[in-house]
Design goal:
33% of the residues lie in helices and 19% in strands. By secondary structure, the chain is an alpha/beta fold. The radius of gyration is 25 Å and the shape is globular.
């Protein structure tokens, strides 16, 4: 089955969560169905959902018998255990021949290439967050045949990028949305140990927050809770923009609800193709409105939606609509406990290098201003990262700033960072700056901090070393090696979501030079959505100062704490941890496991606060046996200290003991 409009294919892509639902939906008015197997996909929270191996096999056969397509989601970030499962799974998928897999983790590519699996086409998941031409070209070079466009991509941009690249585009047209850029929400991991990038999001975005700013409290209710996507009345614009596949969200939805949505969109597409001049956009829309779960939005399809993006209908029930179960309530970030510190040390001991390096570890510092950079240099920092996402009211680093810093850097290195997400204008600006810089010894720069695949692809030939930032979500050794081999990455900041056993296992690969963020309040939500608009839209209900940050910064408040939200020079919002990540007690163990770069996220500190932190960590680097004493002397600037995702996950020693016990019981240990 195929639909065409002026020679352009139009595919309606429906979801299915179980095999029973699939068998019904595949016969609905759609062209393709996507679904997940028993593991490695982003919908792992509902028991009994996803398909078994044999159901996946039969689903592909049933789709092909009907002339339709079957796409399989393999869109998790994968830990080391997942890689072993993926090897078995990909052998199976290569045998049954789905029309494509939908993938997030770059480890997918070496897994397919090493085994020479030629029967597994790859589509890039929305969690790859493909949002500029360079990213499209980068994944095309890896063999990707279709991208699922970033949720923040408007249709005009999609039309231009599709025309320039020739890439197939898939676009979400209906269903559950998220206010945070794809794969850039780490908060569920920090709070619960449940990663949104591994299919277990606990949806802290749906909590009832209040907003504080400028000393006032605002009645914002659910400022992060997005409405459901609704493009039913915009089918002509979708087709004109060059979107091939119209994707409906809903793998956790039940049969009757899905059939209503799929058949509504299918019938509307057919009506438009049959009679584009007499097409009535609104015909049938009342059915979708009547059965909606949340209110509707066209999101970013026609430009930034502002506060109209935010839902109020049925919000705050604290339940998944698909199951009726409570997903989470406001929860405090975990405080660092001595017992957990000992468990972390114990686990890291299993990654200790047999031949330890004798060099002094370097302190690297991510800064927001020239003043912060100078203070960090004066206190002995080895590497300064000049952020590409400068928080207001400060201004982005310009050539004069960079040349002044590099002239005074001494033995230290100055590395230029890039925005986490880069639109075409930003990519062009960086290209002009870096290309012109070749005539001026790169302005004295020593490297680039790469935040997205497109930037690495575009600037790997500039002549400066590339360092992978944590926003790339590197979760396993195969992905890390892939970044090294294909993009020339010299050092890697792994995903902040790595739990204890996952980090320990990654550290056991000595061929991968790792840098670890050891202090600061990292950004755990990166949003195009502007929360600051709330302070302009609503009347304050009370006066209340921020507890830990200047009143000029917005704060999201629950009864469990307050999280600062910083707005950058481009208007994007960055939600930070309420507490400070602090790895001072485990620096020695990290160093012995091969980590020789300790990073401070310094952007949110005053210059003097940052100066004190760099001084402390520099002292620790010179005498790692002093870390315990120095930790005892430290007082948090914000709401306390946390180990972040290292609060979660068992120690590797426990895992090794359990595996040994199993081998003994099975007779393999004799």
């Amino acid at each position: 089955m195929a639909r065409y409009f002026n020679g352009k294919e139009v595919e309606l892509l429906a979801p299915a969560g179980t095999f029973e639902i699939f068998k019904t939906v595949i016969d609905a008015n759609c062209d393709a169905v996507y679904f997940g197997g028993p593991s490695l996909n982003m919908r792992m929270m509902r028991k009994g959902y996803n398909l078994s191996y044999e159901e996946v096999r039969e689903a592909v056969l049933l789709a092909h018998e009907r002339g339709k397509r079957a796409y399989i989601t393999v869109n998790n970030l994968m830990n080391e255990e997942d890689l072993e499962e993926a090897k078995r799974y990909f052998a199976f998928l290569n045998e049954i021949g789905p029309d494509a897999i939908i993938a997030q983790d770059l480890a997918v590519f070496p897994l397919i290439q090493e085994m020479n699996y030629t029967n597994i086409p790859v589509h890039s998941s929305v969690m790859m967050n493909v949002h500029n031409l360079e990213m499209i070209e980068a994944v095309k070079a890896l063999g990707v045949s279709r991208i699922v466009a970033s949720r923040e991509m408007d249709l005009k941009t999609a039309e231009v990028l599709q025309a320039k690249s020739g890439m197939e585009f898939e676009y979400f047209v209906h269903g559950d949305m998220c206010t945070v850029h794809g794969a850039n929400c780490l908060y569920s991991s920090m709070l619960f140990g449940n990663s949104s990038n591994r299919g277990r999001c606990m949806k802290p975005c749906r909590w009832d927050y209040r907003v504080k700013k400028d000393g006032y409290l605002y009645p914002t209710e659910y400022p992060l809770a997005a409405k459901d996507m609704y493009m039913y009345e915009s089918i002509p614009e979708l087709i004109k923009s060059g979107i091939t596949s119209f994707k409906i969200e809903g793998r956790m939805r039940d049969t009757e609800f899905l059939l209503m949505i799929v058949n509504s969109y299918g019938d509307a597409i057919d009506r438009y193709i049959a009679d584009p001049l007499g097409y009535n956009r609104e015909a049938g829309a009342d059915t979708l409105h009547k059965h909606r779960k949340r209110d509707f939005t066209t999101a970013y399809a026609f430009g930034k939606p502002g506060l109209d993006f935010i839902n109020r209908r049925y919000e705050g029930t604290g339940k998944f609509y698909s199951t009726g179960k409570v997903f989470s309530t406001p929860t405090a970030e975990r405080e660092t406990k001595e017992e957990r510190v000992l468990q972390v040390k114990e686990s890291l001991h299993h990654a200790k290098r047999e031949r330890p390096d004798t060099s002094i570890p370097q302190i690297t510092v991510h800064v927001n201003t020239v003043e912060q950079a100078r203070a960090a240099l004066e206190e002995g920092a080895g590497v300064i990262y000049l952020t590409g996402d400068v928080f207001q009211p400060d201004r982005p680093f310009g050539r004069e700033d960079i040349e002044a810093l590099t002239a005074d850097k001494g033995d230290a290195e100055i590395v230029l960072g890039m925005p986490r997400m880069m639109n075409e204008l930003q990519m062009e600006q960086y290209h002009q700056f870096l290309s012109a810089g070749k005539e001026f010894n790169h302005y004295g720069l020593d490297g680039l901090l790469a935040t997205n695949i497109g930037a690495m692809y575009k600037f790997q030939s500039v002549g400066l070393p590339l360092i992978a930032d944590f926003s790339l979500n590197i979760y396993n050794h195969m992905a890390a090696s892939f970044y090294q081999d294909h993009f020339g990455i010299s050092r890697i900041n792994p995903s902040l979501e790595l739990q204890l056993h996952d980090l320990t296992k990654l550290l056991r690969h000595p061929e991968i030079p790792l840098e670890i963020i050891v202090h600061g309040s990292p950004i755990v939500m990166y949003l195009e959505h502007d929360l600051y608009a709330n302070a302009a839209e609503f009347e304050p209900i009370a006066e209340e100062d921020n507890r830990f940050v200047d009143n000029r910064h917005l704060v999201l408040l629950t009864d469990k704490g307050e999280n600062p939200v910083y707005r950058d020079a481009a208007g994007r919002n960055h939600l930070a941890l309420a507490k400070e990540l602090c790895y001072m007690p485990i620096l020695k163990e990290l160093y012995e496991a091969g980590v020789h770069h300790f990073r401070i996220e310094g952007k949110t500190y005053t210059t003097e606060q940052l100066r004190s932190l760099v001084r402390l960590y520099r002292q620790a680097s010179l005498n790692l046996d002093s870390c315990g004493r120095l930790y005892q002397s430290m007082a948090p600037v914000y709401a306390g200290f946390t180990l972040g995702s290292l609060q979660f996950g068992h120690s590797l020693e426990l895992e090794l003991t359990e595996a040994h016990d199993i081998r003994i019981r099975d007779g393999a240990g004799r």
